[in-house]
Amino acid sequence: MFVNPTVTGSAKILIVGPIGVGKTTMIGTVSEIKPLSTEAVMTQAGALVDTLHSPGKTTTTVALDFGRITIDGALVLYLFGTPGQQRFLPAWRDLARGALGALALVDTRDLAASFDALGNLEDLGLPFAVAVNSFPDSPPYRDEELRTALDLLPETPLVRCDARDLRSSVGALIALLTHLINTARPAVPAVTESW
């Protein structure tokens, strides 16, 4: 699918989080093109080290997920989903190059599983928003409890979403974009010298 001629800008956005949090699902939900996914069958060795809250999950992302969404006909977001396991951190850092920001998906069934992803974003200095993905058996938490548990800065957006729902997922991306716009540093004018 081509990019509409009304598009005036583009941005690379990461979708990050632990294994099984819904990164692949979210990209598949919002992408206007057939998403690229590098899912592979989970091995016995991986099953020993990867904590899963979805008993039916048999595959995992091993390189990246990729999708595209156009916002308001003018801005194209190129979405890159990262692998959820810490052992794929080198690939994760490569994917972060050139990214404007990231949406970190969180599962309240295991908040600690999100610490690595959030820490990696902080280490990279990449601005981010947090989206709590809803699962049927997720324990309820108030926003203040989540902010404390995840050690979020007051200005870090925290939203709720369902990665299977288009409106909800786009809303999470809009929250990230709003944050990026509100925290953007003004461009520094070029210094010109006259001789």
Question: What would you say this structure looks like, in words?
Answer:
- This protein has 195 residues and is α/β, with parallel strands linked by helices.
- The chain is 30% helix and 26% strand.
- It has 6 helices and 7 strands; from the N terminus they run βαβαββαβαβαβα.
- It has helices spanning 23-30, 44-49, 89-96, 115-124, 143-150, 166-183, and strands at 9-16, 36-41, 59-71, 75-81, 101-106, 128-133, 158-161.
- The chain has a 7-stranded mixed beta sheet with strand order 2-3-4-1-5-6-7, with helices on both faces.
- Strand 5, helix 4 and strand 6 (128-133) form a beta-alpha-beta unit.
- The longest helix has 18 residues, at 166-183.
- The chain is globular.
Fold topology:
Blueprint: E1 9-16, H1 23-30, E2 36-41, H2 44-49, E3 59-71, E4 75-81, H3 89-96, E5 101-106, H4 115-124, E6 128-133, H5 143-150, E7 158-161, H6 166-183
Parallel strand pairs: 1-4, 1-5, 5-6, 6-7
Antiparallel strand pairs: 2-3, 3-4
Number of helices: 6
Q: Tell me what portion of residues adopts beta-strand conformation.
A: 25-35%
Give helix and strand order, one letter per element, not per position: EHEHEEHEHEHEH
Kindly report the oligomeric state of this protein: single chain
Shape: globular
Query: Which range best describes the helical content: under 10%, 10-25%, 25-40%, 40-55%, 55-70% or over 70%?
Result: 25-40%
